[in-house]
Amino acid sequence: MKQKVAFISEHASPLASLGGVDNGGQNVYVSELSTQLAGMGYEIDIYTRKDREDLPETVEWKPGIRVIHIQAGPAMYIPKEYLMDHMGAFATAMQAYIRKNRLLYKLVHAHFFMSAMVAAKLKRELHLPYVITFHALGKVRRLHQQQADGFPVERLAIESFLVRDADCLIAECPQDRLDLIDHYRAATEKIEVVPCGFNPREFWPVDKQEARERLGLRRQDKIVLQLGRMVPRKGVEDVIRATASLQGHIRKLKLIVVGGEAELPDPAATPEIRRLMQIAKDCRAEQTVQFAGRKDRSVLKYYYSAADVFVSVPWYEPFGITPLEAMACGTPVVGANVGGIKYSVVDRLTGFLVPPKDPVSTARMIFQLMQDKFMHNYMRKNGLQRVNKMFTWEKVATSIDTVYEKIMSRRSILEAENRNYEESGIHRQRWNPDKEYSFQR
After folding, report:
1. CA end-to-end span of the chain, whole Å?
2. Same domain for 362 and 224
């Protein structure tokens, strides 16, 4: 019999276009993991917030997967930093949907802390166990962004509660595990390390010249690629400054920046692009830096394959999927020595690790990869081998399946114990939840 699991991803729908401020790795994670689990026999319902009036309540998305749009606040885009106050309504509406349709889930997988706020309420009302993939931790974010962090300070206390309340915590890399322990005093036995992944049916090495021809890029250029969400913490400014410093040292150098809210690089739609364009101008690199805008995932393999070097130097990164995708396309990575990147990229084997906010070190490593063909080919081969061995979504789903089985087995044992108590005339609270938590600020 197929097991039914509810995903909650309040602000990151698998149906959303990627590359915008709030659409990135979490969307990919939810989409790819649910697809793999459905292929293993699970039935997955993905609950996400309705952010447009024209969205239907239920979308039959893929075999075994539905996307369910929950009314929580106005049906319009709201930055995720302002969604906390709507999570009580989300929980109420989701519970009503579950009851109305008589859905019997084995567990809930919450993505991001606000989704876990909903899961915590469902645990109390419906006795559903839940696991969390945080995707980002508030205390780590605040440590790096400080006053630029737009989330309310209450997030930190909520996350501490959720760490205690959840049945399992999915850490995306060893650093994520350490952060949960050091910053939240998480119980080590509740943490399972399961990385993110890439899809080998979506990302593979394409001949470099064929990829460039498809994209209209010049064969003779030396191409650096930056791809991802256009927000300051992603460190795109540092990539621009690093590339600009190499203009007199590498002939025909080009930096391509992929991402943004629109398919064409629109400074009005993406204020961060306006800021980055000004930085390129200040660095006298306007002719070297090319902003490409948001691109469909079907063409990303051509961008990765067309590049000589992929650079990802965020200030911090819970995991970082783009370095995996780059290595899967045979492109060495210069990555920041932070979070998941220092786990997926092996320094001097599959690429180079550099300190964040350090354009000088970044430039030095780009230069080495551009100049040393032997090193470039060595890292290309090692990167391909590493990601295919360790980081496919199929392997990720197999690990998550093991986590689910452990939680569901534990639940079955507790339910059997509860039945025994009830038959003996003794009542025992099933899940012994912690204190009630108010979602009102």
Report:
1. 42
2. yes
Domain, as residue range, for 245: 208-389
For 273, phi then psi, to 5°, come to -65, -40
Say what the pTM is.
0.86
354-404 confidence digits (pLDDT tens): 999 999 999 999 999 999 999 999 999 999 999 999 999 999 999 999 999
Tokens 């276009």 found at? 17
Q: Phi/psi class of residue 272: alpha, beta or left (left: φ > 0; alpha: ψ in -120 to 50)?
A: alpha
What's the half-sphere exposure (Cβ side, CA atoms, 13 Å) at 160?
Answer: 10
The DSSP bridge partners found for residue 241 are: none
3-state helix, strand, coil split of the chain in percent (to 5) is 45, 15, 40
Which tokens go with 236?
Answer: 């795109």
Q: And the tokens for 134?
A: 């945080």
223 and 125 inside one domain:
no
Q: Give domain status of residue 202, yes or no.
A: no
Amino acid at 195: P
Q: By C-alpha distance, which of 267, 291, 265 is closest to 280? A: 291
Structure tokens at 240: 């621009």
Question: Smallest Cα–Cα separation from 256: which of 210, 201, 332, 308?
Answer: 308
Q: Report the number of distinct structural domains present in the chain.
A: 2
Per-residue pLDDT, 17? 65
Distance CA 436, CA 121 (A): 9
Can you say how many angstroms the Cα of residue 400 is from the centroid of all Cα atoms in its chain? 16
Looking at the fold, whether 383 and 416 belong to one and the same domain comes out as no
Q: For strand 58-62 and strand 65-70, is the pairing parallel, antiparallel, or unpaired?
A: antiparallel
Say whether both 64 and 90 belong to one domain: yes
